[in-house]
Design a protein that fits this description.
Elements: E1 3-6, H1 12-23, H2 42-50, E2 54-60, E3 63-73, E4 76-84, H3 93-104, E5 108-111
Parallel strand pairs: 4-5
Antiparallel strand pairs: 1-2, 2-3, 3-4
Length: 118
Amino acid sequence: MRKIRKCEESDLITICKIINDGATAYQGKIPEVFTNKVYMDMKHLKSDIQAGVTFWALEDDDGIKGVMGLQNILDVMLIRHAYVRTDSQGEGIGSALLTYLLALISGRILVGTWAAAH
């Protein structure tokens, strides 16, 4: 059964793995400087969390399938770091996370992504 929940500190390693796995979909579509190494390491993840990014996860009986972050900057809510495990892409996980997070937000929203994201 699927559920969406706020991520906890114990999820950090899994969040990093999902982001880095999901980012492989951009190889050849975004500047190589972002795909020839680990896209997000633990230091970067912790820095984003300290800067106010709150991560949410969609999980099922097999574990976390996708993550998405929210960050409030001034009067805008940013949706950041939206990634789904490559073996789970196309199953509506990203859409479910986005729909859930949009329902939490009132006011202005900015969703940033690569133009190559589908």
